[in-house]
Design a protein that fits this description.
heterodimer, A: mainly alpha, ABC transporter involved in vitamin B12 uptake, BtuC, globular, B: 259 residues, 4-stranded antiparallel sheet, 31% helix, 22% strand, binds adenosine-5'-triphosphate, binds magnesium ion
């Protein structure tokens, strides 16, 4: 059962998976609550362009992903200034640019199987260098999310009042976009660029079914994400499946179970209430 | 410093047309000022200018004796917007979390709240009679209750001026009356200066000590003690208005908590 942990590459995969499972829902929760799920897609397509650039011109693809999606994050902020009322325009423009680059640059990649690995993730291929990138960057994201906990909460809940209360909205927004870009790009290897934006949403959606506060929502979604990632990696190893796809499908299953469970509770409650009345 | 707010010869329009024409008034510490006027007369615009969201074409606004363009002490200004009812109702936050958020500048950047901050939150919730709901999700409360929570959120920051833009939209008559009573009490007991935009002319005439009316031809001040006549209101609203009287006996007898 546990022999997969003997392999160095699996240890790496689980460690990377764990770190990503911790940071993704922290970012995803705010993205969901701000109703900006598009931003994940936009940045992930740019990180894919970075992966393609790395593979085509011979530098580390994860590094390429980080550079491209962080640049894209800057681009979104810049265009947003031109259309202050329409955040979607900036996100869509940068998404198109990312898709364009990904398409063109992927034409220069010699080994296309290698490229597909980044669409849905792969566990075998994580290098030591990438492990260090993931450890370093995800620590930064965790620290930032912790330090900016109040700021992010207030800006997400009510931007106008947050500004009056003295929260530096623009800086917080910008740091957040940067954190999103980092999170998405370092996930490209294990989870895959096409899958990461759904992984930002799924655990949060499940957590919101049960949580009784903002803090609980965050804690629950982290645990759900860890659970889905671990189970997903395990299944994908034994089934020879793509890890990203497997993790997301486990996530969907957990969400459905969550919704089902909640419905059962509600029905039982209604039964009790109606029984109470007849007595 | 008796003049908390000074508005001098303010002019503003979004495009070519002037919406606010030569507006001047002063607000003293302890005032309960009502701002009334027809839809589109520029009430919200005036408030936005006072909050430095919009910059006037000409004229100036001073708060605490300082031009607001250079004002630093915004934490002394509490604001409840016209849109409170349109916030994301399924946002997973408790009443306590929402109120605590406004202690932002007191807690300090990058710091986590202490026990004393939680106590302050509880005090603020007590002031508006919502202490029993501190663990409830904000979305699970009624409109009137949410309104009180937002009031508590503002009060927790110890403001000196409270600015409200149509806070009674979407809540029923009973909750509306309770909110007016609560505001009257906050004004009298805590000494907060209240500035309130509203269409409840009946209610505001009872509770405010000063009234500013915005109309097509600029503004004028009306003394609420003289009461309000339908003909008079119709004139600056530009159409016929029938006023209903509003009474809140309990408020006058000091039983505000129960009303
Ligand atoms: N962002 C904007 N851009 C252009 N015009 C605007 C804008 N906001 C308001 N206006 C116009 O300015 C005028 C005053 O608007 P304002 O919101 O201040 O009115 P109001 O007195 O608060 O009305 P209500 O009672 O409906 O809240 C209106 O004619 C409105 O169409
Ligand atoms: Mg208005």
């Amino acid at each position: 059962m546990l022999e997969i942990f003997q392999y160095g590459f699996m240890q790496k995969a689980f460690l990377v998976g764990l770190l990503i499972a911790i940071i993704t829902p922290c970012i995803g929760m705010i993205v969901v609550l701000k109703r900006l799920s598009m931003i994940g897609d936009s940045l992930s397509h740019n990180s894919l362009a970075g992966v393609a650039a790395g593979l085509a011109f011979g530098f580390n693809p994860i590094l390429g992903a980080v550079i491209f999606s962080v640049t894209a994050a800057f681009g979104i902020e810049r265009i947003r200034k031109a259309f202050p009322q329409y955040a979607e325009i900036a996100i869509a423009v940068i998404m198109s640019t990312g898709i364009g680059f990904a398409g063109v640059l992927s034409g220069f990649v010699k080994n296309s199987a290698n490229f597909t690995g980044f669409l849905f993730g792969s566990i075998v291929a994580i290098t030591d260098f990438e492990l260090y990138i993931v450890i370093g960057l995800s620590s930064i994201v965790m620290l930032a999310v912790l330090l900016l906990y109040k700021e992010l909460f207030y800006v997400t809940f009510d931007e106008e009042s947050a500004r009056l209360a003295g929260v530096p909205i623009k800086i917080v927004d910008f740091i957040f976009t940067l954190l999103t870009a980092i999170t998405i790009s370092i996930s490209a290897r294990t989870v895959g660029a096409l899958v990461i934006s759904s992984l930002m949403v799924l655990p949060v959606a499940t957590a919101m079914q049960f949580a009784r506060s903002y803090k609980q929502t965050m804690i629950y979604s982290i645990f759900i994400a860890i659970f889905c990632t671990m189970i997903g990696l395990y299944i994908s190893y034994y089934g020879g499946l793509k890890p990203g796809g497997t993790i997301v499908l486990v996530g969907v299953l957990v969400l459905l179970l969550g919704i089902g469970y909640k419905n059962i509770i509600r029905k039982n409650f209604l039964k009790k209430v109606s029984k109470g009345k007849t007595i | 410093m008796k003049n908390l707010v000074e508005v001098n010869n303010l002019n503003f329009g979004y495009k070519e047309t002037l919406i606010l024409k030569d507006i001047s008034f002063t607000i003293h510490r302890g005032d309960f000022l009502g701002i009334i006027g027809a839809n589109g007369s520029g009430k919200s615009t005036l408030i936005k200018m006072m909050l430095k969201v919009l910059v006037p074409w000409s004229g100036e606004i001073k708060m605490f004796g300082e031009n607001i363009q250079t004002l630093k002490s915004w934490n002394k200004v509490g604001y409840i917007s016209q849109k409170v009812n349109s916030f994301n109702g399924s946002f997973p936050a408790t009443v306590e979390e929402v109120v605590l958020a406004n202690l932002y500048s007191k807690i300090g950047r990058f710091k986590l709240p202490h026990k004393k901050h939680k106590e302050k939150v509880y005090e603020a919730l007590e002031k508006v009679g919502m202490q029993e709901h501190s663990k409830s999700l904000i979305g699970s409360l009624s409109g009137g209750q949410q309104q009180r929570v937002f009031l508590a959120r503002v009060l927790v920051g110890d403001p000196e001026i409270l600015i409200l833009d149509e806070p009674t939209v979407g809540i029923d008559l009973k909750a509306e009356e309770a909110l007016y009573c609560l505001l009257a009490r906050i004004n009298k007991e805590l000494g907060l200066t209240v500035i309130m935009v509203t269409h409840d002319i009946g209610a505001i005439t009872v509770h405010a000590n000063r009234l500013i009316c915005l109309g097509e031809n600029g503004m004028f001040e009306h003394n609420p003690k003289e009461g309000m006549k339908s003909e008079f209101v119709s004139e600056f609203y530009g159409y016929d208005v029938n006023l209903h009287t509003h009474k809140c006996d309990k408020c006058d007898q000091g039983e505000v908590k129960s009303c």
